């Protein structure tokens, strides 16, 4: 089987719209949470989120940098974030000027959990108030999930596989895993893979709040709301942004002297077959996903130095993931570090798995693991596991596991190692 | 330039993201200003909103330049 490595990274997050800024803020224990500003949330149960900041902010996002004015007007923000993150990753990999023969072998696998919900909500109001003749001709293709991959392929002339995963909060991890397989199976030599999300709109917040998934106890202290593994956690904080990596066949990367961040060595997938929103009560799906990824990787359990947990800060989910990790890793759990960066940037839903995979890669690059913020009082089951409370920790990081679990009972795990 | 022309030009600049000086009266939306057929649908909708005119599909198809838009609006407005 052909080996697959990561040679480029791109991030748009609530803590920075480029890789180094976001990582510096993550390692610096900053929080991207605050009161919702995208709309007036005063009638909502949840009034906080981790929003991507405007371009005037210290670590804000300037959409004009890589996305045409016309495209910005026509599409939902998740597509704008995705195009920018993909552009960053291609630039980082030095692949923006590939000849046609290479672009035919380069594709996109950038998904989203929800897609253009803000635009669906607002255009639905236009239709209701002004009639069907006022609905934008760009409404459909400005909201579709596969239009991140579509727009990126058009912008950069990438003619290989054009794919888009939709598996709720597992999207980003599935997108990277699937794309890695496309390279391994010789469908492509280069793939842009990841996820993008922007569902911080009245309908999105209301919907998740009604499903009892969001934190509602910390509206006055937004930075305290995302607290994975803490006994006072009461739901996740919605984030937004995008993460995209360049995956590349190993010999292809080596031949052109590319900077190689990591190798994707294991990918596991499973279904809970249990409930639409609640995780399996014994974490069985999470266990099987991680177990498959580890088995495929050929690594020993003791090789894993860091787990970037799904850890959304929901009462049920965090415990079950921890239980599944304990069950799989046994005594090896004592030597690894595990943290949830959702404590800092919230839950990017379909973007989460990709953004968090990038944090895993940077942890290996720099020999430092990011913290779990707000872990003041770890819940009972946390004893004996290093959850990296409050501050980042320097340590050896040679192999990592990243978990993502989504509504519908869909699970994905990725194992990567330093090359 | 007439008042209609100024307002048409503003809409075109805003929607297509082109430099204002490129939006001459003879400019073709597709050939000179980089629009595609859907952009023209959107522009026509914006003209309808701005000027309170109805531009039926068969008339919209004949609007290919900035001048075509200005003329149509001047002839059909209130």
TrEMBL record, chain A:
Reactions this protein catalyses: (9Z)-hexadecenoyl-[ACP] + malonyl-[ACP] + H(+) = 3-oxo-(11Z)-octadecenoyl-[ACP] + holo-[ACP] + CO2; a fatty acyl-[ACP] + malonyl-[ACP] + H(+) = a 3-oxoacyl-[ACP] + holo-[ACP] + CO2
PROSITE patterns: KS3_1, KS3_2
Top-tier EC class: transferase
Pfam families assigned: ketoacyl-synt, Ketoacyl-synt_C
Sequence ranges assigned to domain Ketosynthase family 3 (KS3) in this UniProt record: 1-418
CDD domains from the UniProt entry: KAS_I_II
One example GO MF annotation: 3-oxoacyl-[acyl-carrier-protein] synthase activity
UniProt-annotated catalytic positions: 169 (for beta-ketoacyl synthase activity)
InterPro entries, A to Z: 3-oxoacyl-ACP_synth-2 (IPR017568), Beta-ketoacyl_synthase (IPR000794), Ketoacyl_synth_AS (IPR018201), Ketoacyl_synth_C (IPR014031), Ketoacyl_synth_N (IPR014030), PKS_Beta-ketoAc_synthase_dom (IPR020841), Thiolase-like (IPR016039)
GO BP terms in the entry: fatty acid biosynthetic process
Entry's EC annotation: 2.3.1.179
SUPFAM superfamilies linked: Thiolase-like
Pathway where this protein functions: Lipid metabolism; fatty acid biosynthesis
Keyword field: Acyltransferase, Fatty acid biosynthesis, Fatty acid metabolism, Lipid biosynthesis, Lipid metabolism, Transferase
Domain of life: Bacteria
Family membership: Belongs to the thiolase-like superfamily. Beta-ketoacyl-ACP synthases family.
UniProt xrefs under NCBIfam families: fabF, PRK06333.1, PRK07314.1
Role summary: Involved in the type II fatty acid elongation cycle. Catalyzes the elongation of a wide range of acyl-ACP by the addition of two carbons from malonyl-ACP to an acyl acceptor. Can efficiently catalyze the conversion of palmitoleoyl-ACP (cis-hexadec-9-enoyl-ACP) to cis-vaccenoyl-ACP (cis-octadec-11-enoyl-ACP), an essential step in the thermal regulation of fatty acid composition.
Protein name: 3-oxoacyl-[acyl-carrier-protein] synthase 2
Organism: Sphingomonas lenta
Encoding gene (name): fabF
TrEMBL record, chain B:
The keyword Phosphoprotein is assigned to this record: yes
Gene Ontology biological process terms in this record: Kdo2-lipid A biosynthetic process; lipid A biosynthetic process
Cellular compartment(s): Cytoplasm
Post-translational modification: 4'-phosphopantetheine is transferred from CoA to a specific serine of apo-ACP by acpS. 4'-phosphopantetheine is transferred from CoA to a specific serine of apo-ACP by AcpS. This modification is essential for activity because fatty acids are bound in thioester linkage to the sulfhydryl of the prosthetic group.
Alphabetical list of PROSITE patterns matching this protein: CARRIER, PHOSPHOPANTETHEINE
Keyword Disulfide bond: no
PANTHER family in the cross-refs: ACYL CARRIER PROTEIN, CARRIER DOMAIN-CONTAINING PROTEIN
Protein family according to the UniProt entry: Belongs to the acyl carrier protein (ACP) family.
Protein's recorded name: Acyl carrier protein
Protein encoded by which gene: acpP
